[in-house]
Amino acid sequence: MLQGYGWLMHDGLSFGVQEIHDSDFTLTTEFVKRMGGEHGGDWTWRITAKQHSSAPDAPVISLMFYAAADTQGSLEAHVEERNRLGSITGFSEELGNFKITFRKPVAGESSSAKYASYNYLQTLSPGLDRLTDIVRNSLNRRFVYSPPSDGKRQYIAVDTYKPPHQPKPADPRKESDFVLHQVTVQVPFQIEVLFESGSFRNRPNQLSAAAMTEELEERKAAFDSKFEKTFGLQAKGLGHAQVKFSKAALSNMLGFHQLLLSKWDPQVTREATAHWLDLVNMEGWIPREQILGDEARSKVPAEFVVQRNENVNPPTLFLALQKLVEQLQANPDSESSRPTLPFLRRLYPRLQTWFEWYNTTQTGPLPNSYRWRGRDKDTNLFLNPKTLTSGLDDYPRASHPSVEERHVDLHCWMALASGTMTSVARLLGEPHQEYERTHQTLSDNALLDELHWSDQLRSFSDYGNHTQAVSLQQEKFPVTRLVRSVRRAPKPQFVNALGYISLFPFLLHVLTPDSPKLEHIFKDMRDGDKLWTLYGLRSLSRADPLYMKRNTEHDAPYWRGPIWININYLVVRALHHYGKTEGPYQEKAAALYQELRTNIMNNVYRQYAETGYIWEQYNDSTGSGQGSHPFTGWSALTVLIMAEQY
């Protein structure tokens, strides 16, 4: 098991530094991209291996470099010295003509040659999703690594590909060239792989050796300077280790979470947003699962491949659009914001269609109410049927799904979305009155109270056909399994599950600063028997009957207690907003803000320092990272919390 891996620096475009920690050695991979020609230019990838001081012997390791054409081009291997792949030449429509060169390893950062063994594989692949299988069916133990000054040792390497017995593809054009380069060498060493574009005809020099080192140092210095200018963490007094953590968090998530990325590079956010909205169909629907090609499809469970065009993800992209609008309004003439207005003009027709799809397909049973589609139907197997479309999966909703449900989080998302549409329409000089009326209606605190305030819980809540008297019981016939037992019949009522969903009117700033509901929200948030922990707010109150309860015999609790950084970011952001806005709860919000910000920052950093990873979620009892790792999508929002940029 790796002790840790991830990017330490990455600018999102043309430079990055990554470390991979194994038991006996560390691999540092660095790349630089140099623009030129008509096909994107050149890049060089450098791998440096260093032995850990605690390792008894210098390990011998094998590195494999894959190149595959994906049916849209061709590759040709150029073999030197019997079985060393010196280079690959190729062509594709997107890249034009190109050459990939595999330089021989050198000893550390010196230029002295290093003994190595080489292997290569050249074959055809039926698809990118089959590459690992091809390599696995090509491995052989017969090879010997025999350096002149050390003993011999056997190693596993690619040999002749022996495909399993299966029919030939019906269409041979779907087979693609696949070439693999393997180098086996003893630590320490350094290797470079060069990609050179055929249309880059006036390159100043080859991006390797000393030229690569010089370029890397310039990029590192520029990254450090831009990071401090953007986030100002050193100016806030944060230490070197915390700043290094923050750089890693940013670098690992670039391209994923637009709230952080829009601070770093608004142009990349504009491009990512445009790509998302390019997925809108004529009805305005964007599928929940983005399964782009055979390779992606091979990783997706079968039940998620066929999708229904009434099921969707939360419209969180409006948070990123809201941020781009705010940046434009604050600095309309800045170089980073100037392209936003023409970008929004191009985007606007799709944005209208997308918003209208939500506002017509996700409506609830009462005027101005909303209901997530796509809840699990099999109420017999789930303690509480999941609502994957909400993004909060197993968070407790009405125990018996029905068309009578009203979902408070979706109501608040639509308030945010209509407000953002109002701002965009105003900027573009487009009719905005209808969006503004929708926004004013959904932001009406009296309407929100009427639809979603539970006097019993003294909190905001979903409404639906519900009973709390449910449990999982073992059924022995026809097979032994856990099924749901309902001890009291459901009835139309508020769901009364205190947790993240209850906070949404506060999270998305729907509540007015003088709303008396803020007093109840702040009290529940700060209560250690409900939501408060030393590591962030837990997702479901400890007092709730479903707190940390399994949803099926196979599904562990997910949004029923653990701490999630995306929602905690919204909490801190909202506390910052209400703490800066005049009102009777301003002082309380400001105090909670400082306390919660410190708890989140300290725990996410501490877990990273101890484990080498940023995590999907954090344990509400111990603060320990858990779930998927490394997970630097929304968990990297910790950087914005540290920088106090909301």
From TrEMBL:
Provide the reaction this enzyme catalyses. Answer: N(4)-(alpha-D-Glc-(1->2)-alpha-D-Glc-(1->3)-alpha-D-Glc-(1->3)-alpha-D-Man-(1->2)-alpha-D-Man-(1->2)-alpha-D-Man-(1->3)-[alpha-D-Man-(1->2)-alpha-D-Man-(1->3)-[alpha-D-Man-(1->2)-alpha-D-Man-(1->6)]-alpha-D-Man-(1->6)]-beta-D-Man-(1->4)-beta-D-GlcNAc-(1->4)-beta-D-GlcNAc)-L-asparaginyl-[protein] + H2O = N(4)-(alpha-D-Glc-(1->3)-alpha-D-Glc-(1->3)-alpha-D-Man-(1->2)-alpha-D-Man-(1->2)-alpha-D-Man-(1->3)-[alpha-D-Man-(1->2)-alpha-D-Man-(1->3)-[alpha-D-Man-(1->2)-alpha-D-Man-(1->6)]-alpha-D-Man-(1->6)]-beta-D-Man-(1->4)-beta-D-GlcNAc-(1->4)-beta-D-GlcNAc)-L-asparaginyl-[protein] + beta-D-glucose
Alphabetically list the UniProt keywords. Endoplasmic reticulum, Glycoprotein, Glycosidase, Hydrolase, Membrane, Signal-anchor, Transmembrane, Transmembrane helix
Cellular localisation? Endoplasmic reticulum membrane
GO terms of molecular function: Glc3Man9GlcNAc2 oligosaccharide glucosidase activity
**Membrane topology note:** Single-pass type II membrane protein
Entry's EC annotation: 3.2.1.106
Q: In its UniProt record, which GO terms are filed under biological process?
A: oligosaccharide metabolic process; protein N-linked glycosylation
Residue span, Glycosyl hydrolase family 63 N-terminal domain: 2-116
Where the record annotates domain Glycosyl hydrolase family 63 C-terminal, the positions are 255-644
GO cellular component term of the entry, any: endoplasmic reticulum membrane
Q: What is its main location?
A: endoplasmic reticulum
A Pfam family annotated for this chain is Glyco_hydro_63
Q: State the top-level EC class.
A: hydrolase
- The source's domain of life comes to Eukaryota
UniProt cross-references to Gene3D superfamilies, sorted A to Z? 1.50.10.10, Glycosyl hydrolase family 63, N-terminal domain
Instruction: Give the family this protein belongs to, as stated in its UniProt record.
Output: Belongs to the glycosyl hydrolase 63 family.
UniProt function note: Cleaves the distal alpha 1,2-linked glucose residue from the Glc(3)Man(9)GlcNAc(2) oligosaccharide precursor.
Which protein is depicted? Mannosyl-oligosaccharide glucosidase
| Protein species of origin | Oncorhynchus mykiss (Rainbow trout)
